[in-house]
Every structure is written in structure tokens, then in C-alpha cells.
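Predicting holo structure, pyridoxal-5'-phosphate bound.
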Amino acid sequence: MTNSLTQRLEQVYAPVIGWASHIEIVSAEGCWVTDVEGERYLDFACGISSVNAGHRHPKVLAAAREQLEKVWHAGGSFLYESLVSAAEKLIGITPPSIEKLFFMNSGAEAVEAGMKLARKVTGRQGILVFRGAFHGRTMGSVSYTTSKAKYRQGYHPIVPSVFVTPFPHPYRWGMTEDEATDHALLELELKLKHEVTPGEIAVFLVEPMQGEGGYYPAPPRFLHRLREITKEHNILLALDEVQTGFGRTGTWFASEHYGVEPDILLMGKSIANGLPLSAIGARAELLDAWPPGSHGTTFGGNPVSCAAAAANVDALGELIPRVPGLSAHAFDRLNELKGRHATIGDVRGLGLMIGIELVKKDRVPDPDAYKLLDRFAKDRRLLILNCGPDENVIRFIPPLCVGAEELDIAIDIIDEALTEYERR
Ligand SMILES: Cc1ncc(COP(=O)(O)O)c(C=O)c1O
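Done. C-alpha cells:
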């Protein structure tokens, strides 16, 4: 079907990226994409949560198109309206502690900027991160990433003075949420007693819900305790909401579920509904202490991406109120499936960021079940992704314009695939 394009790709393109499929698409609308042969696929991969408002959302499309007709690059040379409008709109939806922003292009760049800012303004070197986290692929961001050892393999030495401590994974550890929280907090306490003093730590970098690492929401007590410890020791708290942001969990940012306000907020992916843009947000006092010229970018805050980001705030503002109802429907149905399929060990998440963990007996990860499901789903014209170090957790992340009927189509396909797998 797409052989010739695949062959051409292999001639000219590095094989380094792990494509989820080689389906050649030619157009996209809402939750659906269409391939070169006119077949429509339900897109529950959602650009790894980068097109939360749905493909080619009309408001975002109109704003980007209008900007494209005027000017599409100004990079550090001129001022333009769309950058300031986007920043104003985004400040309006971020937590109250976020007073100013700076734009870049990718999530990894936002993370890098956050860590540079933290070191610069605190004068401390230590960066504390959580096992299972994903923060990006650049040399700095990969040094904070421990979702899979493969991401760091062959790249050492990586950035020094990065300290890793466990993030609670109750299901994987065979513990209750409380037990896992106690365990992770004890390990953190020991880390700060035996390996590094709190006074040497600039920042705690954490995802409020781990994404790539396996779709684990932080237990509320855990995130609250991190906020307390950081305040006690004048350590900054940076929340990486690159994947959890922009309505994915049913609120603008996942931190709203917890009532925890970050000092630094890292944003990307759906910020401009699929156009390249990312941002660091922080208290004004912190961003004002970053001297001009000590950080910068050529393409960051591109006029077209900024126009899209401003319109995207309006688009998502209409879609986010739908998420809790759709989420309840999805959780009800997926938990019902869990009752019937021994292969489903756990269903967890927030809003429409749901992880479905596939296992054998005794919670042993079952990547083969995911492989069969992936093939089955593609045959039925559904695109999904996995996550977790064992690649056995289904990411259930539809665009937020999804309807209950489309949720049901995807859940029925998962049901049928697991029935076939378990029959073998
Ligand atoms: C939580 C988180 N942080 C950072 C990144 C890196 O973003 P990018 O791939 O845009 O550099 C990702 C990407 O998946 C992510 O999920």
C-alpha cells in the first residue's frame, strides 16, 4: 500500500525515529485521518497529545492562515502582535503563579530552558528528577529522562548533578497508592540525607502524571509533599506539563487537579494544536532575573505558531468542559472490560489521558498483547500508541473533540482484540 514511500524513506531518511505506522496520510479532520487510498482512520494517537483540539480545528486554521498571509518569520528582529497576544492568552489559562512566559519550539527545549533558569537564578547545580519520567531527547533533557534506559544508552557522559528518585508506581510495585507514596517519599528523604543536601538542589522537575513512563498520575499526597519540601528548602518546583497540558486531563493543566502551583511550568505539544511551539512559564520575579542574552532562540515564538496558540485557547475553552463526561464514559467502559479480560491489569489516568496496562499472570507485563492489539487496531482503522518501559500500556488519548460514539468504536476494537488474544 505505502511500499514505495517507505522505500523512498529508507533511501534518504535516518531510521532513528520509531514510527508508530507507515500509513501514508494525505488529510486530517477532527479525530479522523485519511490515507492515500481514501481509507479513514480514527486517530487515538493524537500526535502524542499534540492536536488536542482535533486536526485542522477551524479556529486554529483560520488564525494560522491569516497570519501566514501577513508575516511568518520575525525571529528576534522585529516585534509582532501574535507573540504578545499568545502570551497574554496563555497567562490567562495557566496557574496564578505563572506570570510571564518565554517561547521556544519543542518540549525538550522548554525543559532545557527550565533547568537553565533554575540553575541561573538559584546559583545551585542539583536537579532532582523522578524515575520513569520523560523530558525529551536533547543531551540535557535526556539526562533528566529515565522512562527507558535505551534513551540514554550510548550517550554518556550525560549532564552531571542530576539526582534520580522513585516516582510512585502503585500497580507495578504491587502496592496501594498510600504504600507506594510512603515508599517514594522515604526514598526521597534518604536521597537528601545520603547523596545530596537540599541546599545544593536548584529544582525538582516532575510530571504531575508520568506520560511516556507508563501513564501514572502522581498520588495527591506525593505532589503536595514535593511542594512542601521545595518550599522548606527554597528549591524551585518545575512541572513538566508538555503532555498533560491543554485540557488533556480535563483541566487546562493537570496541576489543577491537585491544587499545587509550580514555580516553573513547561508547556509544549498541544500549545498550538500541532504547530511547533513550546513555552516556559514562571513567576515574574524568576523570569525577570534572567538577563537579556543569557538564553535565546531563532524560531521560538514563530508568528504563525503564536497566532495558532492564541486561537487554540478559544478552541480548547469550548472543548475542555466536555472532557469529564467523556472521561467518565471511557473509564466505565474500560473498567467493565477489565472485569472480563484477565489481560487488562490496570486502568488509570485523568480525564482523557488513560493508560490501560496489559499483563500476564501476577502483573507480569505483556508486550505481546499490545503487539497483537496494535495490528488488530490498524486492520480496523484505529491508530493507538503504547507507553511504559515494557511497551505494554495502551495510551488512550483521543482528541478532545471526540464523541461518545467514537470512544465506543475504539473500546469495542480493544475488546475484540483482547478476546482474540485470550482465545489463543
Ligand atoms: C512530558 C514530556 N516532556 C517533554 C517532552 C519532549 O517534547 P518534544 O518531543 O517536543 O521535545 C515530551 C514528549 O513526549 C513529554 O511527553
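Residues 48, 106-108, 111, 134-136, 207, 211-212, 240, 242-243, 268 surround pyridoxal-5'-phosphate (CB under 6 Å).
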